[in-house]
Amino acid sequence: MPASPAALEALRTELVALLGERGVSADQKTRERASVDEATMSPILSEQLPLGLADLVASPSSADAIAATLQAAVRLGVPVTTRGKGTGNYGQGIPLHGGLVLDTSRARAVVEVGDGWITAEAGATMVALEQAAAAEGQQLWMYPSTAQSTIGGFLSGGSGGTGSISHGSNWEGFVTALDIALPGESELVHVEGDEAQPFVHTYGTAGVIARATVRLEPLQDWRAVYATFPTFERALTAVRTLRDTTPAPRLVSADRAEVAAKLPKDAGIDPTLASLRGIVDAAVLDESIELIEAAGGTVLDVREGLQQTTRVSMLSYNHPIWWLKRNTPDTEWFHVEVGGEALIDRIAEVEAVYPGAMLHIEAAHVGPIGMLTAPYTGAEDVYAGYPLLRDLGVRVHSPHQYYVDHGVEELVALKQQTDPQGLLNPGHVIDPSLVLSGGSTASAQPVVPGFGK
After folding, report:
1. Does the pTM exceed 0.85?
2. Is pLDDT above 80 for 263?
3. Cα–Cα distance between 365 and 231 in angstroms, integer?
4. Ramachandran angles phi, psi of 366, nearest 5°
5. Which domains are assigned to the chain?
6. CA gap 38, 151 in Å, rounded
7. C-alpha gyration radius of the chain
8. pLDDT digits (tens, 9 = 90+) for 343-390
9. SS3 of 363, please?
10. Which string of DSSP letters, residue by residue, matches 78-127?
């Protein structure tokens, strides 16, 4: 699978002519930066690093240039791993077989905003899309917790975030159309509706998202709400009641005091108490405050404006775990992505699965989801907890693997059509027969299908 030195040099020469000297690099530091993502969030994956190193990095500045770059690599038999900003994936963006890293983050044009939709190139950031939509009195259905993520990266590797309480994952109607770069196709291939969905959350293994059209809705008047609770259990009650307000919140997150103490200092976060942060519609702000107080909480602050709601988003999903890891360097932490009402109803039993475990929780349309984190003692201990969690009624997704684990059979069939040479992000798709009952694989890396990142 690795490309020959002659093929790599030929590709470098062709890409310089196509993209200019600044558009392609064989510099060691550039290649190293383009070959890492958030795999270090997993101690299991960290033990395996480095997993791969790019031979070349290309940075096309338009959707059409993305397609031309891909064609040049495929024609010379060079593997291609597509990259946004590398902020959210756990190894899925690492070039396991070297070759070319196709960095789409310079193709950042917001093409058009329409009534209920927005079109942008793959490198446009989610916050740029949100700002463009707001200027037209609209808002994105959803965006990831890292608002500076690119739309291409979010659609290829993420699954949900702020707004998911109402709209679910990014493969549940968020995407209306894609322009895909495919091996052997000189121009972008336009797909809409159901034909676009198979390319979502597949890490660029079947095609490269160069341009996307996603759904908007009428702009709402949001408020960032910060509250504290004497116990985490009371915060959980508020998570459940807040999600059922109408209009629904855009986000509700909560953490134990031990995690809240590691978050960035903020007047809205008391490091000695459990913390809840929410993004609620101004129309139900008073009702939301009443629900928080009824659960035993105290509202510390209410803030207005996109900058403030974005800040709340940046303290959701795996971000609190990132801050916990950063601010307790003497402890190595792992986390498991979990979901289900048992996270509220049976919290003591859930956290007891792992010694020292703490739950970060999010309200979601499918019931609460969260990150269960604990001190790391070894991979076998982590995996041994999965069946115990399922016995409690908890959905489990393992972030400690770098394969596509959503719709694997459908992806393999699609990839046989679009990428018969197997040059798109090789090593990140496994044989569906390796997925065993109970959500593990025959390899060393468990895959738990059915619960996306």
Report:
1. yes
2. yes
3. 24
4. -100, 20
5. 5-103 (3.30.43.10), 110-219 (3.30.465.10), 222-397 (3.40.462.40)
6. 17
7. 22
8. 999 999 999 999 999 999 999 888 899 999 999 999 999 999 999 999
9. coil
10. --EEEES--SS-SSTTS-TT-SEEEE-TT---EEEEETTEEEEETT-BHH
